[in-house]
Amino acid sequence: MQDTYYYLGFNLVNGIGPARLDRLIAFFGSPEQAWQAEAGDLAMAGLDARTIDALLEVRRRCDLETEYNRVVAAGVRIVSREDPVYPALLRELPGAPPLLYVRGTLTEKDRWALAVVGTRNCSNYGRDVTRKIVSDLVAAGVTIVSGLALGIDATAHEAALAAGGRTLAVLGSGVDELYPVANRRLGQALMSQGAIISEYPLGTLPVAANFPARNRIISGLALGVLVVEAPTRSGALITVQFALEQGRDVFAVPGSIFSARSEGPHRLIRDGATIVTRAEDILEALNLQDAVEQQAIAAVVPETPEETALLRLIEAEPRHIDAISRESALSVPEVSATLAMLELKGLVKQVGGMQYVLAR
Question: pTM of the prediction?
Fold first, then answer.
């Protein structure tokens, strides 16, 4: 929790983004030491005078615990990179936000996610394609990530909600500044089946400079990015560029050769993106045909070192609890309690005479 306070403080300082903060932490050894450093030491760490002044001013006027409580009181969860609920796909990337502001819920199921992006000025064809593909992806257990913008983004969120699936919206503003205004009701609705996410502090307005950086989080939260409709100069293609840098798969829906909205997807297909005419094209490419089963297995994987140790010792052939105890160096009561938990999870089963086998 203490490091979360310091991440929160740095997040309020103009001029200190994820990369610069990581350099400060590497230089000083911890977020706390970086936060408390003197001006001269901050200069040695590579901060310019303007950023040092901004940091000292935030330190002077901001009590971190009070600021944290203010955010929580607004119904917002602060998720740092050290928090277990921080999205695993995003955490592994260089430049991952040290702090996320979240309204709604993040779950383990969100590891099976696809970003769906496209133009604000979409056609009826674009909307219909998005609804069909998203509905089928949701039925397969895929979480839909987008940016709450008008057009393809909003259609993707709406289709995910209508299909009873999960959807995440990443903002270029604070999570208390739902944008655009026309999609505020949609933003409120999706919190019950997903989350509104931002790296920007509460009260941050949706200025244009924030959106390109926001797009790296959209792609970073997902296994791949699907572009439905996008002209050649489009924010959706910025998201694709981030996806390629992050090693994500890129998918594109073909459209009419007479439509400027299809120029972006057609260029992506020409450059090697996977052409998509049905959800199965994505599910097969990402090995997500059995995403629901993968999620079920992930929900019952070993949670403790004892569970992991015992699973390594249990096989398809029955093994007695005494033998398991000897090899694991755990007492029989410890083994018995752990096996009982593994039975509840459906990972092992007792076959009589205190002998156990793998259930899967």
Answer: 0.82
